[in-house]
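Team,

Forwarding the record for the chain on the shared tracking sheet. I've put the sequence and predicted structure together so nobody has to dig through attachments.
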Amino acid sequence: MSAIFPEGDGIFETLKTTDGVPFALNRHIARATRSAAILGLLIPSQDDIRFAVEALLDKTPDTLKFGRLRITFDKSGEVDLVHETYHPWVSPAQLLILDSPIDENSPTVGMKTLPFTSHLECLAIARKAGFDDGIRFNLKGDVSESAVSNLLLKIRGRWLTPNLASGCLPGITRELALEWLDVEESVIAPSDLEIAESIYLLSSLKDAQPVSMLEGRTLEIDTELRQELLFRMTQHIDP
């Protein structure tokens, strides 16, 4: 099982597994199905995808506590499944501001499409500079997302996430935060970053990773929201 990111054209979904059990599998499959319909890709039915995933996960070794499951559909609709060891984050993230705007008007905006090169290049820039990730704006100049995650920001006491018009991915964890927690969608301006009290990175692999520093400014780590999100996740494995 290779950790190399898939190449070529197509769509993909990435899920975290715990003891061989995927989180929110049905939501990920549904998102892939919607993307495929928009792009005109013929992919297997949701039931067939689910059966293929279950067959692969049945082979999960007992020693694999946390896994990364990647489901890739190439432009011919062929499915490739990879399940490998995942090492969860162990410390808060540090972010910088990236000068690499997202085109919120792109025909593939809001989809997890291949090639994923631009996202990975942004991540590489952040890491080369000594950071874990970076914040990207859209062409209007509004805050959109990080290189590979959604954003959740506490601004003036309110938990906000950039709206989908910003060009951000409709992430599954983001979606659940909006459903379960006191979180609102909003237009977030660059000036809002200067007064943000707390920030989280949201993704299927990270769940909610706190951010300790943005461009050298120390942020508060508010653990209450993450604890509530994790509690809900343990109660609803496939929400």
